[in-house]
Every structure is written in C-alpha cells, then in structure tokens.
Amino acid sequence: MSQYWSKLVHNLDPYVPGEQPKDQRYIKLNTNECPYPPSPNALAAIHAAADERLRLYPDPNADELKDAIADYYNVQRANIFVGNGSDEVLAHVFQGLLKHDAPLLYPDISYSFYPVYANLYQINAQQIPLREDFRVCLGDYAVDNGGIIFPNPNAPTSMALGLDAIEALLQTHAESVVVVDEAYVDFGAQTAIPLIDKYPNLLVVQTFSKSRSLAGLRVGFAVGHPDLITALERVKNSFNSYPLGRMAIAGAAAAMRDKAYFEDTCQKIIATREMTVQSLTEMGFSVLPSAANFVFARPPAGNAESLYLALKQRGVLVRYFNKPRINEYLRITIGTDEEMAAFLSVLAEL
Amino acid sequence: MSQYWSKLVHNLDPYVPGEQPKDQRYIKLNTNECPYPPSPNALAAIHAAADERLRLYPDPNADELKDAIADYYNVQRANIFVGNGSDEVLAHVFQGLLKHDAPLLYPDISYSFYPVYANLYQINAQQIPLREDFRVCLGDYAVDNGGIIFPNPNAPTSMALGLDAIEALLQTHAESVVVVDEAYVDFGAQTAIPLIDKYPNLLVVQTFSKSRSLAGLRVGFAVGHPDLITALERVKNSFNSYPLGRMAIAGAAAAMRDKAYFEDTCQKIIATREMTVQSLTEMGFSVLPSAANFVFARPPAGNAESLYLALKQRGVLVRYFNKPRINEYLRITIGTDEEMAAFLSVLAEL
Q1: Which residues are annotated with the PTM N6-(pyridoxal phosphate)lysine (chains A, B) (predicted)?
Q2: Which CATH number fits domain A40-258: 3.40.50.2300, 3.40.50.300, 3.40.47.10, 3.40.640.10?
Q3: What residues of chain A lie within 8 A of the CB of B49, using their CB?
Q4: What is the pLDDT of residues A282-312, one digit of tens each?
C-alpha cells in the first residue's frame, strides 16, 4: 500500500501460479508441464539462434513463427497473433476484444487468471456456473454479453466440449467475440481453428507450454479473423514492440514444424493418462473424463487437502484449490509412466 | 476497425519501431543496438539453459537475475523488478505508478513510446517542452502532477542531465513518482540508482538491450523502493506470471555479472562516438553533446530527410523523425569503428 500506486493497483488480486519449489526435488505433477523434453529440432534452433546476433532486436512481427503456425493450421499469416506465453496473449485479448458495456461471460470454475484479467482491465464480467456434473453448458451463455471466453478442455476439470457444441454457440452468437482457450486441446479435444473462416468473431488461443514442451521459452498464440488479429496487434504495439526474443521465435517455429515429435508426445501422455485414470478409479477415486494432460480426481474420502499435504511431504506435488465446489478434488498432471507409477505407489501407501 | 474491438482499440496510436529490413544487408545505425556481441559468459549461460528443462516453467520471480542486478548495484532483491524488455517494464510503470488524477509530465521530445503508453492506459498526460537548445530543464516540471518520467540521457537528443539536477527535483518533489529511464546511461551519464534509498518516490529503469548487447533476448529492469516494486509485481502478476523465460533469466544474469566485458564495450563505443562527433563536426554538422550510444546531428543544409533516404539507398540505415523541431536532425547509432568509417565515407560522397 503506498500513496504512489495508481488507484487500480490497490484493488488488484494477482494470480498465484502453482508452486515452483527450489528446496528439493519433487515429482512435479502440479503445473501441467509436459514430462517429455522439447523437440530436438526446437533445441537445435534455439542453440543456432544463441549467438552474437542477440545484440540485435528480434523481428517485431515474428513472421517466421507466424508462418510456421499458419502452415500447420492451413491458415494465413494475417490470422495469427503471437505473444510471450498464452498468458500475455490472453491479457491483450481481454484488453483489446473483451471490454464492452455488456458483461464478459466465463465459467465460474475455470482458469483462475480470467477474473484477474477482468479486474486488471476493469471489465464488467459475469461468471456462469458449471452444471452440477462440472460440464460447461454453452446454452447457459445465451444472455446479453460483451464477449465469452472458456477453455476447451476446461481447467481444472479437464472436460472437453465437442466442436458441434461450439459451432452451435457461434451460429446463434455473432454480436460479440467468442474466445476458445485451447491450452490443453492437443491431448484429446478438437481444435476450433477450422471454424475461423466461417465465424469472424471466433478467436482460438493456444500455447507452446504444454503439448510442445516449451513452458520455459514463453510462447503462445491466437488464431482468428484478421480484424480480431489487428486489434491484438494494436494493443501489442502500444505495449511492447518485441515481445518475443530471437530464440523464442526460432525455437517455437521449429517445434511447430516438427509434427511427428509433437504427435508422438501427445500420444504417450494420452496413454499414460488412461492408465492413471484406471488405477485411480480402482482405488476408489472419482475421476472426471479428461481430454487434457491432467486429471481432476476426488479421493474416496473427499480429503483432498490432507492428501495434497501428505503427497507433498512424500515428494509428490499436485495442485489443490481451496475453493467452493472443487475443494474435494486434486488436479494431477500426467507425468511419465515412471512418475505416475511412483505417484500411485505413494498414494497406495497413504 | 471492427464492432468486436474494445472501444479503447479504436483510439490507439501504436509505437512504430525503427526499421528491421530483411531485404538486404545494411550498415544498421537506426535502432541503437550495440555493435559488439554479448558477453561470452552470457552466451554460455544461454546455451547451458537451452536443454530439456525448457519443458518446465521458469522461476516466476526470476530471483537469479534479480540477485545479479542487486549485487551489481549494491541494493536488495526487493528493490528490483524485471520484465520482458524495458518496454514491458515501462508499460507496467505507466499502469501501476503513473496513472493519477493530476497529469503525468514528460518531455515533448523524448522516447516516443511515452504518449503511446499514456494513451493505452488512458492517463492524463502533459508534455513539457524542451528548452530551445534541446535541454530538459527539470525546473519546468514544478507544476501540479501525478508523476514525472524522462530519459537520462534523453532520446533522441542524446543529452544527459547531471545527478545534481535530478536530486534537486527529488528534494522538492516527494508527492508523486519520478521515473528516470536510463536506457542509455552507461555511455556517459550517471545512474540515479544510488539515490533510491533517500527518495522512496524514485524509480530507475534500465535495459539489457543497449550496453549489454542483448536486444534479442528481451530483458529490462527497474530499481526503487520496495513499495514501488510491489506495485509493479502486482501489475505483472495480474498480467503474466512468467514474463522471462529460462534463457532470458540465465543469460541476463550472466551478462550482469561480467562487469569487465560490459565496461570494455561501453568504453569502445564512447571512443568511437567521440571520433564520429569530431568527423561530423568537421563536415559542418551540428551535433548535440551526446552521453548515449547515438548522436543527434543536423546536416549543414538541414536536409535530414533527403539525406536519410540517400544513405538508405547506399546501404546505411539511420533514423529520421518527421516531427516538429527535430525534422532537420538525424539520429545515428554508434557502430564499430569500421561501420562509422563506412558511414562517414558515404556521407562525404553525398
């Protein structure tokens, strides 16, 4: 608290990321990172870019990266916006596309950064409750609004909507922007990117931090109609001309081009997830149907918090949210087969 | 223009960075980059960080980097804020510390991103004219205000204020934040960082893009009282938990620790600048007294724009601002001795 702060700062309620402890080595199943290394091509591109040219500014438009993403999704460069992690992309989306007189809508149980952005940009927002079974029901969003954003799959519930449900929403909702936050889409859901040509108010946001194993590089992107992208570029160019460094551009572009490695990584995680779900179910956990690289599971006794603490004490980090409706659940990131076997064996002991 | 844009977006007037042409090789004296490569220690640290750990998020607090900066300037970690280039740091400063009812003050001829930020965050701002001789006169800022920001040395004029003038301002001005933007301070001006213990409203902003040859890595920082830093952390943690990737943290920390390399680089640039100023003066240019890694020079005939174009045609890029009062000047970055000799020889031909 200080007389020097802008008024806004006093009322901020910042996001709290998952723990990144430095005191000891944990089996880290708490921040939805990928257990597999990045594509060797991405690492090679990063090393190749890490030379004396770092004295020079990067390409402010990151065209190499935009082109790699556009090629992958068979869209145009003008459909792509890139940023310093999907969190930065989402921040610009909130400021540039989701601030209107009518309320912005998002699920009450969802990515907990949404209310933080709404507060930062003083956006009128309204939370739409998930159904009793934790489903996002897009029919519930048919109210006057200045924008809609939801993750697909949702977090921390891990449950996905089908493209048919998303297209049904778009068909009846042309008046404001619909943002589909696809951070986890590659682990079992369908991307809405093919719909952007048909719906100029659809924006899809993705990240390199999960399925492309590059959380430490900080790259995210958005795909949509060029009018939406132009708004984001205008905000970005009023904030930071060069959000992506030379290595971020080169590394992310190479990762995007290595389709085979990416698909292999996703398949391994999906296989490990199915094994984990089966084991947890056999141990009496209720596990929500997951299309993500994590599962959301209720222990048989509902004692999620004490179980979180006991796991931590035994060197396994998972994520616990002390919030209404979800405080009997744990969010467990899918690691390697070995990590999950170790986790399950600690769990069995407990 | 689109119905989907937030109202704000329609009125943005984004910053335009210096050209980064890809069509041919230029002698690039237009974006104030350092002509020398980064410290070998920085490159080594970047390569060491570019491995499979990139799958993991970086330290959201970038403590390694904060500690390296704190050590260098003999302050505490709590005095340091770091961000994705000093442009991002400045953006958070504008939003978190400089938005008040009374107007924010900055020089009329200065870093042209300031009015862009003021517009982005809808900050009431007032430009204070430079004196006839292009000096910033801090006495002119003794009016009711909600904050003051100025670069030292100023850009694009290259002229520096002494610490005595800055301390005189601080002594009579405790009621709002004073930001000294020291992007170019290492080339001949004095940093105000030693004053932060005495003046809790002083914030100093610096960058790794100029004197530390890391424009392509994207790292900047601010130094000030912990209360000011807390405001910036609150904004940052409402915007992006992880603005700096693993390589940015490791590379910038190593660069900061390599004091000898840094000092050698600065000395070489200063020597080349003095040689350049002498040659330009002999050719009839009026050159403002520079404490930066660039000079601001008026050609004898005042034909700056046509000279800019002619230089570009001959493969030399400098920066021309088509703005009142400075449209007869060129901003010329100091390159290597060889680059400046080539520039001067093209100039002599013209």
Answers
A1: 210
A2: 3.40.640.10
A3: 216
A4: 999 999 999 999 999 999 998 999 999 999 9
Nearest in space to A13 (alpha carbons), one of B226, B88, B239, B63: B239
Helical segments of chain A, H only: 7-10, 40-49, 63-73, 86-97, 114-120, 163-171, 226-236, 246-257, 259-282, 304-313, 337-349
Decide: residue B80, CB within 10 A, 0-12 exposed, 13-18 middle, 19+ buried.
Answer: buried
- Give this complex's ipTM: 0.96
pLDDT at residue A54 tops 90: yes
The candidate with the shortest Cα–Cα distance to A98, out of A259, A275, A260, A228, is A228
Rg of chain B in Å (alpha carbons)? 20
pLDDT given for residue B1 in this prediction: 66
Which one of A84, A119, A145 makes the best mutation probe of the B interface by having the most chain B beta carbons within 10 Å? A84
Residues of chain A with CATH 3.40.640.10: 40-258
Contact predicate B167/B190, CB 8 Å: no
Q: Distance (Å) from the C-alpha of residue B41 to the closest C-alpha of chain A?
A: 12
Chain-chain contact of A28 with B238 (C-beta, under 8 angstroms): no
Residues of A in contact with B91 (CB under 8 A): 239-240
Residue A222, min C-alpha distance to chain B (Å):
15
pLDDT in tens, B84-143: 999 999 999 999 999 999 999 999 999 999 999 999 999 999 999 999 999 999 999 999
Are A119 and A257 a contacting pair, CB within 8 Å? no
Contact A17 B99 (CB under 8 A): no
* CB B265 within 8 Å of CB B34: yes
Contact A203, A228 (CB under 8 A): yes
Locate CATH 3.40.640.10 in chain B: 43-258
Model pLDDT for residues B5-48, shown as the tens digit of each residue: 999 999 999 998 877 777 668 899 999 999 999 999 999 999 99
CATH architecture assigned to B43-258: 3-Layer(aba) Sandwich (3.40)
CATH for A7-37+260-349 is 3.90.1150.10
- 8 Å CB contact between B167 and B304: no
For residue B158, give the nearest of B131, B183, B129 by alpha carbon.
B183
What is the model's pLDDT at position A19? Answer: 77
Kindly report whether the peptide bond that precedes residue A153 is cis, defined as omega within 30 degrees of 0: yes
Contact B94, B256 (CB under 8 A): no
Q: Could you state, in chain order, the average pLDDT of each consecutive group of 10 residues for chain B (350 residues)?
A: 91 86 83 96 98 96 98 98 98 98 97 97 97 96 96 97 97 96 98 98 98 98 98 98 98 98 98 98 98 98 95 95 94 97 94
A55/B237 CB distance under 8 A = no
Alpha-carbon A174 to chain mean position: 25
Q: What percent of chain B has pLDDT over 70?
A: 99
Contact state of A34 with B17 under an 8 Å Cβ cutoff:
no
A239–B201: do the CB atoms touch at under 8 Å? no
